[in-house]
Specification:
alpha/beta; binds S-adenosylmethionine; Rossmann fold; 23% strand
């Protein structure tokens, strides 16, 4: 009883931290150069896009529905998957982030970030001419069927009728679970919760921070993070019923440490639900 109360308090404290999440600042800190420098292979964003491109084009994916867990205000994570799956659902806990995504999807202008260089870069990875980015943008707008509220701390993170009863064919989740959980146990529980949204045999692409204890989501908005190592990620995946296909690690160079967090590395996981 006491233990459960402690758990609830930890999760409630994390949710309170997100009240001041500023999508425009978060995008500026993490999704502009040097972290998103498309002229460099050792910049974080091109590394993430290359991992996602490879994972989605290896020929082992099947089905129709891709769900992105904790999308935040970002779209890069579904730019490869939108060519493979005919329906994509974006999700986030915060209305401000869902609004930011809606602005881009409805092509209303006034977005906090220009996603064009991202679309161009993924086109290049796909062997298409960079000018094909307009087609990719149209494709992404066509396949994103909805932007839904989610809470990974609930045993049922989405509304009951949000997905077909068998579950999604593929999940992608980037920098969400470790940055919304008060401790490793909560991270693992959240991984278990989102696993219920995936069909057996479906794939999970998980990207996250290594060794991070906080990040800034706006001026003075300091959000605590569970510092993870690779072994903990692998153990949590195994406990949640996944078979690991691949784990890749990126180590931040000194110039990627721009003072908006204390992350030391990034992991990319491709796994299959047993
Ligand atoms: N996926 C994006 C990316 O790759 O940059 C955003 C990651 S951001 C560090 C963490 C996201 O988790 C935020 O968008 C936040 O609103 C969302 N979040 C916060 N609490 C959550 C919860 N309980 N369940 C699901 N998502 C949550």
């Amino acid at each position: 009883m006491m233990e459960e109360k402690g758990r609830e308090n930890g999760v409630a404290a994390m949710k309170a931290c997100y009240r001041r999440f500023d999508p425009a600042a978060y995008l500026q800190y993490n999704y502009t150069p040097p972290r998103a420098d498309f002229t460099r292979k050792d910049s974080i964003v091109p590394w993430k896009l290359a991992c996602l491109h490879r994972a989605f084009t290896e020929g082992d994916m099947s089905g129709e529905l891709l769900v992105d867990i904790g999308s935040g205000p970002t779209l890069y994570q579904v730019m490869s998957g939108c060519e493979v799956f005919s329906k994509v659902l974006l999700t986030d806990f915060l209305e401000v982030n869902r609004q930011e995504l809606r602005r881009w999807l409805q092509d209303e202008g006034q977005c906090s970030l220009d996603w064009t260089p991202y679309l161009q870069h993924v086109c290049k990875l796909e062997g298409r001419r960079p000018s094909a980015w307009t087609e990719k943008a149209a494709k992404l707008r066509q396949v994103v069927a909805d932007i839904l509220p989610i809470d990974v701390h609930c045993s049922q993170p989405l509304a009951p009728d949000a997905l077909p009863s068998v579950g999604a064919d593929c999940l992608v989740s980037c920098f969400c679970l470790e940055s919304v959980s008060p401790d490793l146990a909560a991270f693992s529980r959240a991984l278990g919760h989102i696993g219920k949204l995936l069909r057996p045999g479906g794939h999970l692409m998980l990207i996250g921070a290594l060794g991070e204890s906080y990040y800034f989501a706006g001026p003075g908005v300091r959000i605590p993070v569970v510092p993870l190592n690779e072994a903990q990620v692998c153990t949590s995946l195994k406990e949640s019923g996944y078979t690991l296909i691949r784990l890749e690690v990126y180590t931040l160079t000194q110039d990627m440490r721009v003072g908006v967090d204390d992350v030391t590395g990034v992991f990319f996981v491709k796994a299959k639900k047993d």
